[in-house]
């Protein structure tokens, strides 16, 4: 683990940040807002060490070992349909600029390669007013997506959430073992056997033009793979954004892995495991247009 990630792991030990009380820390003319997120697998709450049945096309049983993702450009929607950016609290742990890390693993059991801290909210302020909806982006903006995580501020210093300077961050990191693939690894099966490697969903930008993996691209990647999410009716005081990975895996066979490819779908072109996953995320893939809206997030 790189020094930056190790420092964050220590900072997160036992860390859980409560929602601010109404009016606490809000400047005059503003109001606090906390957008709650919940992680699920086919409608069941996500928890490290828990197994979930009926996942994917084979109705497999899976045991996850990681689940976290970055959101950015969080905004509330006023009654005229205008997006009003949430000014995120710069807490030094979970939020920086307009980016927040939602982290549902707690470093226990099969999630032992994660961190002990958990974060399930995006916190900040908006101008005082009435708001009826929510919009945000799944992913890290281009301006922050390519750099050195070992010197980046938290929460961008997690090397586990990073590919390379060229590719940038993993916007979503979900790893799991399944009935057919009982172990998880970080590289393709060297035998090309297509199994026993676990199933992952790592979403990030691909086809990023740079001289090498250790250099940042000068322009946006050919496949940015950021997901715009909008709920035109959403009340942060009463509702929660549910991120159900089961909906993303519904059309995938999590018990096999395409020979010679990374375990599951890691967003890279030419992976036969990716079309149903990328389609469920509402993204174009392999020259085919997006199949429909994203199905990862819902408002409850």
Automatic annotation (TrEMBL):
Pfam assignment, any one: MbnP
Record InterPro entries: MbnP-like, MbnP-like_dom
Annotated signal sequence range: 1-21
Sorted UniProt keywords: Signal
Stretches assigned to the Copper-binding protein MbnP-like domain: 30-266
Protein name as annotated: Copper-binding protein MbnP-like domain-containing protein
Organism expressing this protein natively: Piscinibacter sakaiensis
């Amino acid at each position: 683990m790189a020094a930056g990630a190790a420092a964050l792991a220590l900072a997160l030990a036992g860390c859980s940040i409560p929602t601010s009380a109404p009016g606490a820390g809000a400047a005059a003319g503003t109001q606090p807002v906390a957008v709650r997120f919940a992680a699920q697998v086919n409608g069941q709450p996500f928890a490290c060490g828990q197994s979930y049945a009926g996942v994917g096309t084979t109705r497999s049983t899976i045991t996850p070992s990681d689940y976290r993702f970055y959101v950015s450009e969080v905004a509330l929607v006023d009654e005229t349909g205008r997006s009003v950016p949430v000014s995120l609290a710069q807490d030094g742990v979970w939020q920086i600029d307009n980016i927040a890390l939602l982290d549902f693993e707690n470093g226990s059991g099969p999630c032992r390669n994660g961190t002990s801290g958990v974060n399930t909210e995006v916190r900040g302020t908006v101008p005082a007013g009435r708001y009826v909806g929510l919009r945000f982006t799944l992913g890290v903006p281009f301006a922050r997506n390519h750099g050195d995580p070992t010197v980046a501020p938290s929460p961008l210093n997690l090397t586990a959430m990073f590919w390379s300077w060229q590719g940038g961050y993993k916007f979503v990191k979900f790893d799991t073992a399944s009935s057919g693939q009982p172990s998880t690894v970080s590289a393709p099966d060297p035998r090309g056997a297509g199994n026993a490697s676990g199933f992952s969903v790592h979403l990030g930008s691909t086809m990023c033009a740079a001289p090498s993996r250790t250099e940042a691209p000068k322009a946006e990647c050919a496949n940015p793979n950021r997901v715009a999410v909008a709920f035109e009716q959403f009340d942060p005081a009463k509702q929660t954004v549910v991120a159900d990975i089961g909906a993303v895996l519904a059309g995938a066979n999590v018990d096999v892995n395409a020979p010679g490819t990374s375990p599951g779908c890691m967003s890279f072109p030419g992976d036969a495991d990716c079309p149903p996953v990328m389609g469920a995320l509402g993204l174009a893939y392999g020259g085919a247009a997006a199949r429909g809206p994203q199905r990862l997030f819902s408002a409850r």
